[in-house]
């Protein structure tokens, strides 16, 4: 049963520190998404990759956030420097695409980030 | 710009009561809508999609283009239905195809 995996599951850090979150998409899925979940905003799309190329990161604060896919089995989301307002659950999702259409998104378990 | 609105952050019902989770959308293109569910301590997962016109775990949702709504309904709620529910709209832009989620509704089914 293939699943999206994310590490770490929990992260507590101090303001100003760098945070790196990792995601392993399901093998064969060519689209990868990063979301942030908060009580106030719900699920917000941060970044979107297709075939490892970034397509849309308009939802991401550019000055401190960066998202990459070094290879097809790894997606990373970095925050540098982190701030208390970044505290949230960060989800990665992957999906198979056909004809430019992502049929379904499969979500990872999330990384719960707390910035003190 | 596309938008998905779930007006209720929390919906509390008794077991056996009917439940309706509201979802409204705005989108200039042809809408395709989904409901995702997140049970306690589990990951977000697809519940149903409007094009399938299916009933999953007793839930149904009908797309009403006139009212721009995609409400999720179940005639008799069960305690195991307690979860966070997200309505999502599939959209296309220059970047490709992505989902826009609503703010979510937490459903609590009381015994």
Walk me through this protein's architecture:
The complex is a heterodimer of chains A (116) and B (111). Chain A has 116 residues and is mainly β. In chain A, 0% of the residues lie in helices and 57% in strands. The model of chain A has no long low-confidence stretch (mean pLDDT 91). Chain B has 111 residues and is mostly beta strands. In chain B, 0% of the residues lie in helices and 49% in strands. In chain B, the strands form three sheets. In chain B, strands 2, 5, 6, 9, 10 and 11 form a six-stranded mixed beta sheet that branches. Chain B has a three-stranded antiparallel beta sheet with strand order 3-8-7, with no helix packed on it. Classes of the chains: A mainly beta (116), B mainly beta (111).
Annotate the secondary structure layout.
The complex is a heterodimer of chains A (116) and B (111).
Chain A lengths: L4 E3 L2 E4 L5 E6 L6 E8 L3 E9 L2 E4 L8 E7 L2 E6 L8 E8 L1 E2 L2 E2 L3 E2 L3 E5 L1
Chain B lengths: L2 E3 L4 E5 L4 E3 L2 E3 L5 E7 L6 E5 L10 E2 L10 E3 L8 E11 L2 E6 L3 E6 L1
Parallel strand pairs in B: 2-11
Antiparallel strand pairs in B: 1-4, 3-8, 5-6, 5-9, 7-8, 9-10, 9-11
